[in-house]
Design goal:
This protein is 17% helix and 30% strand. It is built from four helices and eleven strands. The radius of gyration is 18 Å and the shape is globular. The N and C termini lie far apart (40 Å). The N terminus is likely disordered.
């Protein structure tokens, strides 16, 4: 068993992410902040492996030729998983970044996600409550654990039930911000998110080429004006 544990980090360090051909799109911009659409299959921050340099942050600070200029002072107050697409909030100067960080820490920023789940959910809406802890044996996975896990709450609302195969489009509102929260909570109710490589079952495997999870809405206070802003992003699947 110790040999297996020691081999896990080297496998992860050597992993090279596929090239992401899609561009990062800016949906809102002013002197203090950016809101952008992150494509699925792009890291939020550059990886430790030199071959994994491409990321949202790298593209922001170096620019995307012919698409976006370089924002050399850009900071990411939050991140999205590699496979998740959708809205990300960016600070363009130190005061704005600090203000946004404080909002995320205070959980005053409201986030909503769209996800396609395997199977048909029985209830039209509900809440998933399952504590989440790190899983040192299966990094980067997390696990559900009532004794060592931190409180994790996810509200969901069914938007559409689809057939052939049976799947459900839901809107998630996470009330906490744990790592992989929506992905493992979906598995916990036996309806994993389609395309998820870490948290899946026999029914969900092979039904999607990408993780069907999209950050569709952010509501926050502008760090300079104090105005409450709500930004939407159309789902891509």
């Amino acid at each position: 068993m110790p040999e297996q544990r020691n081999s896990i980090p080297s496998l992860i360090d050597n992993f090279v992410v596929p090239v992401c051909q899609q561009q990062v799109q800016i949906v809102y911009q002013d002197d203090d902040i950016l809101l952008l659409n992150k494509p699925s299959g792009l890291l939020s921050l550059s990886g430790k492996n030199p071959l994994n340099w491409d990321s949202v942050h790298y593209r922001l600070v170096h620019g995307q030729p012919g698409i976006t200029p370089a924002f050399t002072t850009a900071k990411l107050p939050h991140r999205l998983d590699f496979g998740t697409s959708g809205l990300m909030l960016v600070g363009l100067n130190a005061p704005a970044s600090k203000h946004l960080n404080q909002q995320f820490q205070a959980r005053t920023i409201k986030k909503r996600y769209m996800a396609m789940l395997s199977g048909w959910l029985a209830q039209d809406e509900g809440q998933i409550s399952a504590p989440i802890a790190k899983d040192k044996q299966l990094f980067p996975r997390v696990k559900l654990c009532a004794t060592t896990g931190k409180t994790a709450l996810s509200d969901y609302k069914v938007l559409q039930r689809l057939s052939e195969p049976e799947r459900t489009l839901v809107q998630f509102t996470p009330l906490t911000g744990r790592t992989h929260q929506l992905r493992i909570h979906s598995l916990a109710i036996n309806h994993p998110i389609l395309g998820c490589d870490l948290y899946h079952n026999a029914d969900s495997t092979g039904q999607a080429e990408r993780l069907c999870l999209h950050a569709s809405e952010l509501s926050f206070q502008h760090p300079s004006s104090g105005k409450q802003l709500t930004i939407h992003s159309a789902v891509e699947f």
